[in-house]
Each structure stands twice: as C-alpha cells, then as structure tokens.
Design brief:
With 412 residues, the chain is an alpha+beta fold. It has two domains: 6-24 and 119-409, Neutral Protease, domain 2 (Orthogonal Bundle); 32-113, no CATH class. The protein has helices at residues 13-19, 73-79, 121-135, 154-171, 191-198, 207-214, 248-268, 277-294, 299-313, 316-320, 325-334, 339-342, 348-364, 366-375, 381-389, 393-409; strands spanning 6-11, 32-39, 43-45, 48-50, 53-60, 91-93, 100-104, 107-113, 144-149, 181-186, 223-229, 233-239.
Length: 412
C-alpha cells in the first residue's frame, strides 16, 4: 500500500483560541455544486448577456477547479470580447436543467443566477432561536484527534478544526463529551489509511463503507459521515478530492451537519433508529445551514441562500412532483425508517425533514426540540413527540408539515 504522510492534531479549546449518514455525497440534477461566482458587473460571453449578480456553479465530468479560479474556463471566457465565439470545442447551451450552461465533448458546467429569497416568518424565527443559543454558548471540553492525509483538501483542512469546536460550544449545554473525538480528512480511495488512523480508537469502517471509499474513483464525489464507536462514542471522517472546490459557507454547513450526528449519537445512544430518519438527517441539514449562516455577516441572507441551494440539490421539487397530500403523508411516514425514501435516492428525509425541523424549532424552540431526542433514548419517539409538542405526529404531518413543505417548494 502506498504510504501517506499525515498530520495528527489534538485540538482543545485552548489550542483553538490560539489558532484562530447516511453520508453526505449528494449531487443535484444540475451537477456537482462548486460554489458561488460573484459577477461584479454585467458581462457578455459569446454574445450572451450575464447580468451582475451571484451565480451558483455546477460541473459535470470535470473538477470544479478547472472552471473556477483565475486560470479556470469561466475566467477564460470572461476575458474574451463580447461577441467572440467560444474556444473550440466549447458550446453554449441556453437551458440545461434550469440553468445556462457550457459543454465540450461530454463535460461542462452550468451557471445559475441566484435570486434573493425572502425567508418566511417560520424560517426566520427558527434561525433566531439558533442565534439566541449561539450568543449564550459556553466553552466545551471537547478534544479532537484529527488525522489529515497528505494532499488533503485545503479548504476542509482550514475549516474543520474551528468549525467543529464552534459546534461543540453551541451544543455543550446538552452534550459535552469527556472522551476524545477521532476525526479524519482523507482522499478518495483511502479506506486502508482511515482504518490505520482509527485503529488506536478501536474503530474500523463497516465493510460497505470501506468498499465505497476504496472504489471512489470520481474525485468530485464526497463521502462525509459520523459513526458510532463504543470507546469514543463517535468518529468523524470527511473524504473529498484534493481539487474539489467548494464554497466556504457550504463546507462549514456540511461539517456542522456531520457534527449534529455526533450529538445525536451522544444523546440518543445510536446513529439511527431512536428518532425518525427525517429528524436524524433533516435536523442535520437545518442545523448545518443555520450554524454556518449565523457565523457570517448577514445570517438571514446567508441562511436563505444555503437553505435554497440544499433543497434544490436534494431535488425536493422532484420528490413532490405529482403527489397528492395522501401520497405525501405516505412518504413522510416512510421517511421515518425507510432509507430509500429518507436518504438515497429520494432524500425526502433530508429535504422535507429540514423543513419540519424548522417548523418545530420555530414553534417550540431549540431546547425543547433537542429534549425530544433525549426523551426518545429509552422511549418511543412518537409518544415523546406527542407529549412535548402537543399533537400526534400524523396530525403534525397532515395539518402543518405538508402545507408548509408544499408552499416552500413553490419558491425553489
């Protein structure tokens, strides 16, 4: 096996202050999201107008760094005169899955102008609940044993330690582990390397995950996960290509997403099964977006953008298309435990679950929502849901969740 140099960091709150899933491996129909390109003025490419604004970039068949950056294809196009033809073999496509695009021999990228989204009063109130907790966050005792493979993705190497510690502080009033949290940043194919790093913590990858990472040939595919481990409660790993370019806010959101699973394992005693899958994954999407946005200059704007991009990436509109309310009720029930509905390929637990989390936190607050998880550790989550939130879960689905989800999807 090819040997890799690694960096081992044990990160504590003191060190932080001095240095300052199902897995997440999702691509939308439009391709792999590469982040936001900020177009500071009106531009014309090959006679096509691109108004001033922020554009979400998606790629297919090519890495993000070949499109973005000073030497990327997009920068090359922008340097041309307005009416110059595209360099061969590139071609312009006016409408590719809802976005303008450029293609060349089976590869290409799409650019989609981001429209400003107004948050609903429910979404705003849920975000405010998170901001209020952040203002009162206390120090955490968490220590991270972080292994970093040579040539790992620089953005994740930069952001992961501080983002995890920020999350640990946010959650510390509910869960502040006294054991070290093993974490790793690896490259596609690094199954053996990951097992070597986790061996001292008596953990090895499940066989299906080992094979998935081992055979991860597409460097744009990302595998992020938190898993149970008896000696440390949890382990965290992020497998992402060296040149996989992502927007920092999105990267922080995904790191925060996986740390939510660490919290769930700590509070409920299991990665899956103690609470419905839609809460396991949907709440991770919600908290990931809310915590990432709350650390930025304009939380409501940033949250609206992250939220909309995640729901689009998870293909919420496609999951809802043509469904009656009775069929949606059936889907929500299935998203409680059927991973084919909750996770891949439908991802309904992620998308609809994030909106249901938003509703519950808006109405009942962050603390009460998390108390539901705690109470479900040794009890039926349905009974605890009714006791805390004052209604049966089916009534919540029909009378509150489905109308909210359908209304929100109209803005995607």
């Amino acid at each position: 096996m090819k040997k890799r140099l690694i960096t081992l960091l044990v990160i504590t709150p003191l060190l932080l202050s001095s240095q300052l899933s199902a897995s997440t491996s999702i691509a939308s129909e439009q391709g792999t999201p590469c982040g936001i390109y900020k177009n500071s003025k009106n531009e014309v490419i090959a006679g096509v107008k691109f108004p001033k604004g922020n554009y979400q970039i998606y790629t297919y068949g090519m890495p993000c760094n070949k499109v973005l950056g000073k030497k990327g294809v997009l920068a090359t196009f922008l340097k041309q005169k307005d009416q110059d033809p595209l360099p061969k073999p590139w071609k312009y496509q006016s409408d590719t899955v809802g976005a303008q695009g450029f293609s060349a021999s089976g590869i290409g990228f799409r650019v989609k102008l981001i429209q400003k989204t107004q948050l609903s009063s429910t979404a705003t109130k849920a975000l405010q609940s998170i901001n209020a907790r952040l203002k009162n966050a206390t120090n955490s005792n968490l220590k991270i044993d972080l292994a970093i493979a040579k040539d790992s993705n620089k953005l994740f190497v930069e952001l992961l330690p501080t983002t995890i510690m920020e999350n640990a502080q946010f959650w510390s009033n509910f869960y502040d582990p006294k054991v070290v949290l093993p974490a790793a940043i690896a490259l596609p194919g690094d199954s053996d390397w990951l097992n070597e790093q986790f061996a001292k913590h008596s953990y090895s990858l499940p066989r299906w995950r080992y094979d998935q990472i081992k055979n991860q040939n597409n460097t744009q595919m990302m595998i992020f996960d938190a898993d149970e481990n008896p000696t440390t409660n949890s382990v965290l790993y992020f497998v992402i290509g060296k040149d996989n370019s992502q927007q920092p806010a999105w990267a922080k959101s995904t790191i925060s997403h996986e740390y939510v699973h660490v919290i769930q394992i700590g509070l409920t005693g299991a990665r899956n099964g103690r609470i419905p899958c839609w809460s396991t994954e949907g709440s991770a999407v919600f908290y990931g977006n809310a915590l990432s946005a709350s650390k930025l200059g304009n939380p409501e704007v940033e949250y609206a953008e992250l939220r909309k991009n995640w729901l689009a990436m998870l293909n919420l509109k496609k999951a809802l298309s043509g469904k009656s309310e009775t069929e949606l009720l059936d889907l929500l029930r299935k998203s409680e435990s059927d991973f084919r509905v909750c996770a891949e390929p439908l991802y309904f637990g992620y998308s609809a679950g994030s909106l249901m989390t938003e509703i519950l936190i808006s109405e009942h607050g962050h603390e009460k929502f998390v108390q539901w998880w705690i109470n479900s550790r040794n009890n039926d989550w349905r009974k605890e849901f009714a006791a805390l939130f004052g209604m049966e879960v089916d009534s919540f689905y029909m009378n509150i969740a489905i109308p909210y989800i359908l209304k929100d999807a109209q803005n995607l």
